[in-house]
Amino acid sequence: MASILYPLASLSQIEKTPSREDGIPEDLEEDLRAYGCKLIHQAGILLKQKQVAVAAAQILFQRFWFVSSMKQFGVGDVGMGALYLASKLEECPLRMRDLINVYDLLLQRASHSLSSKSDQDFRYHPMSYFGSTFYELKDALVLSEMQILKRLGFNVHVVLPYGTLISYLRILGLDKNTEACTRAWGYLNDAHQTPVYALYQIPTIICAAIYLTAMHLQIPLPASSPLSWWELFDTNEEDVLSVSGHIMRLYRERTAEERRRVVGLVTKKEVRRWLEENMTASK
Amino acid sequence: MSLESGPSTPSKRRSKWEEYVEEDLPHISHLKRRIKHKPSKEVEESQEVAHPTPNNLTPTFKPLHSIFVPARTRHPPILPSRSVYSYERLNQIEEGSYGVVFRARDKKTGDIVALKKLKLDEEKNGFPITALREIYALMSCRHDNVVGIREVVVGDTLTQDLKTSNLLMNNRGTIKVADFGLARRYGDPVGVGGMTQLVVTLWYRAPEILLGATTYSTAIDLWSVGCIFAELLLKEPLFQAQGELELISMIFKLLGPPTKQSWPDYSSLPLAKTISLPSPQPHQFRQKFPYLTSVGLDLLMSLLTYDPEQRISAEEALQHPYFSESPLPKHPDMFGSFPSAAAGEKRRKPYESPTAPRGANYGVLDEMQ
């Protein structure tokens, strides 16, 4: 019984996240969360890490921002720590050195895209043998792993949605529809870039993924209020629509300016500078 | 964490020292964790009466909710750890390679807990994976006879291992399993490498692990239980081997070397070829345990069985006739009690034994004079 009671953000944590308390606008926090999760995902692919570890890392990462501010911790460091920790929890530990190298590459590539030479092809420069980069990243990694544990109260229990998705698709008779399955699976994966796994119960998120799938593929499902199909899965319409909204906002076209802004705010230093500039600008 | 479900002891009077195991980590970022057992007395007491699960908090009428999807409000919030300074450190209980265990008092509630401080200085790979497994196992496994975790605390300084030294007994005779450092989530597919062979303290290690099996099951714990059962009967560990080879030969001696019948898969184990089997011999259980009833011997032999497939399961073991023959297991309330070592209580001498009559010596003295 206890195994299904994974932690979820409380109402007060949802209403005012620590980052917003520190003056970070809601849309920026949302974009930074998504970007941090993309880095985790990319690192996971480069390291050939299992998807369960990547997904668990993204869930821990999302929970972290309900108890910590982006002014105190950078999304790059925390993402790295989350992936390292989740890999241990899922019994597929990573080597520190590999993870650090991959993050170094990802961050270099990100800063290349912001530089004046962004029109040229990106070339990775491995960190120097005698340089301090490795040790700095290693310290950041150990520290953020510890901070995640501490701030989540060591409750790192994570429940992943994939198995339940398959059951639901079977019940709805969609398990033979390959396109529907692929799409719903994809929405669940994309949802990891949003905070929904720290906000809603797994059945709700799965219903939202199926709901979006059914909408896009125009598959009719019994949906006449008050007895729509999701009632079967202990979910209500309001929550399905809210989760769907979180997922769909990921696909909103970002302006070039918005994209640059996110990539330039991976570290807490950059976030602090941004806050200073924008605080003074607003005054 | 208010989820403490397991009242550690079913009796009223208990020493509280084992109610909490806490952990604390002094290191890089100075973390401390504590695993405690029980919350305040009132909570425990009420849980003893009702179900020892957090369920009794739920509203009773929830017809449209499946039991697999508890109400949203039942989920715990995301809560950071408290500081280790919310505890006052009392005496040290024990030190091991993993860290140090202290007795400590919760400054707010006055509860006495065990506080486990992890040594992180030696760690090269961040937070130790064994500690993560231990915390995970303790948090998800709340049982009367398992040391309950109360919380993990951090300071600003920052088991598949069943053996008798990991069984804690309180002064009311109730036993608790402690030390889940090697416990693992079982049942999930494990990576290509399989599980490590480096589990379970040597004396309690099952033969399949000794012979290099990389897939093993809960049966290894039942072997350990067999070793503990034997140890309780013998008043000393059953296989006190110095090394793995000695342990194997001790097992061969007691059980008789494995045969095609007793262990069909023996020859397929990685290390089986490196061992030359002694000539067939009968087992020596009866000689080793002359006073055990035949039913008891049957249970012991079912636990200490070569083939993990044939070894008795935990469920079967609980149904074993040994537990229904005389003497029947006692109710925990009837357990004998003894002074709590942790609380510094001393055994009182029942009475001064009378010395021999003085007069008897006089004759001797007289003679010498």
From TrEMBL, chain A:
It comes from the Eukaryota. Residues 26-156 form the Cyclin N-terminal domain. InterPro entries: Cyclin-like_sf (IPR036915), Cyclin/Ssn8 (IPR043198), Cyclin_N (IPR006671). One of its GO terms (biological process) is regulation of transcription by RNA polymerase II. Pfam families: Cyclin_N. One of its GO terms (molecular function) is cyclin-dependent protein serine/threonine kinase regulator activity. Signal peptide: none annotated. This is Cyclin N-terminal domain-containing protein. The lineage of its organism: Eukaryota, Fungi, Dikarya, Basidiomycota, Agaricomycotina.
From TrEMBL, chain B:
Keywords: Kinase, Transferase. This is Cyclin-dependent kinase G-2. It comes from Psilocybe cubensis. The lineage of its organism: Eukaryota, Fungi, Dikarya, Basidiomycota, Agaricomycotina.
